[in-house]
Amino acid sequence: MIFYLTYNDQPSGVYWSQVTDVVAYLNGLGHGRVRLVALVSVQGWRTSRRRIKEHAPDAIVLPMVPRMRNWRWNLAWLLLLCAVYRPSGIMARGVMATWMALRARDRGLVRRVCFDGRGAYAAEWEEYRIIDDDALIGQFRPLEQEAVQRSDIRLAVSQALVAHWGERYRYHGQDHVVIPCTLAARDGSNVPIKARSDARIRLVYSGSAAGWQSFQLLEALLVPLLTDDARVHVLFLSPPDPQVDALGLRYPGRVEQTWVDAAKVADILAEQDLGILLREDTITNRVSSPTKFAEYLAAGLPVMISNAIGDFTNAVRTHGLGVVVAEGEPLNLAGPTSIAERERVRAYAAQHFTKDVYRTSYARILCVLCERP
Predict the structure, then answer these.
(1) Helix H or strand E segment including 134
(2) What is residue 188's predicted lDDT score, i.e. its pLDDT?
(3) Which regions in the chain score pLDDT beneath 50?
(4) Cβ-count burial 271-287 (b if 16+ within 10 Å, e if not)
């Protein structure tokens, strides 16, 4: 048996596509059983447990020790589970989960550990102060360094993240695989693309307007477009936000906001022309793999992307997958996206962001974690 360990990741659309779907896929590869172990907030633990088990029925869902500063105490849960189930390996999502997995390995309760690196953890906490606690933030560099240097194998979401590990932590090995954030099992790629007769250019922004999502950059881009071209309409698929409301008041009837169930998102995206993916230039964003990139492409949407987002900006330039927003470069919107173009970018998503594309990489991880001494 192999554990897939998550710590403090709450149920969400991202959790389904990047955790429970991954566990289900790994279990279909025939390299041993993979079981999800989720440590979630004690607040709402029963609800989280029910939701997670709807997607992964055999998942072990346990309440975290209260208060973030006590996070290391959760090691006791993992040591107990390892003593009972004797897994051969642990695939650990993030640096805190990896710290626990390495401690279990040090005690001889598990043989192999995979660090599932979803981004630059220390940089993210330092740049965005996820919790305003200097002592906690200060723990992340040594935690990330140990995860990178001591794990038996590593999963990175981008080549840019591997380069970051080399620059900051002197990792120059080959014991890693690169797998970007892939599409959910229900990705909406079969939603029909319909011809339109109107001349509107429909832009869509899907996600939160907070923190690293960089709303100020978004506003600076949209205001000139909305002012200069009456064809431009913008839809925010996001929770209610006063910044979006203010923009809507400036351009009545051309800026809309709605928040829908994840199952309905693909249908709405399929009615738009261009997906917006803007981030400020930080280490966090330069190594990232935003899930929305693949989701936009799967819906047939070219992407309007910032100049340095993980490996994706170069992909947009190289393969003509949309528009790169770069200082000093003109930004021209030709008109509504043709059906042929939308089918082309949808095909690219199928070729690069389904889990089966990375079957060999996933199998390599499992072979390491199943390996006997």
Answers:
(1) helix 134-137
(2) 61
(3) 373
(4) ebbbbbbbbeebbbbbb
Contact 277, 208 (CB under 8 A): no
Paired tokens of 357: 């594309």
Enter the tokens of residue 348: 């690219």
Give the E-state strand segments of the chain in sequence order.
Answer: 2-7, 34-40, 60-63, 89-93, 112-117, 153-156, 176-178, 201-206, 232-237, 255-258, 274-277, 303-306, 322-325
The residues with which 138 forms a beta bridge, in sequence order, are none
| Residue 347 dihedral angles phi and psi, to the nearest 5° | -65, -35
Q: Which of 283, 76, 9 is nearest to 169 (CA)?
A: 283
- CA–CA separation, 163 and 323 (whole Å): 25
Question: In 191-209, which positions are buried (b, 16+ CB within 10 angstroms) versus exposed (e)?
Answer: bebeeeeeeebbbbbbbeb
Tokens representing residue 190 in the block: 């079969």
The DSSP letter of residue 366 is: H
- Can you name the residues that pair with 292 across neighbouring β-strands? none
Express each pLDDT in 212-264 by its tens digit: 556 788 888 899 999 999 999 999 998 888 889 999 999 999 999 998 887 78
Tokens 């059906």, residue located: 339
Helix (H, G, I), strand (E, B) or coil at 72: helix
Domains and CATH numbers, the chain: 2-182+355-370 (3.40.50.2000), 201-352 (3.40.50.2000)
Residue with tokens 């990232």: 288
d(C-alpha 322, C-alpha 348), whole Å: 12
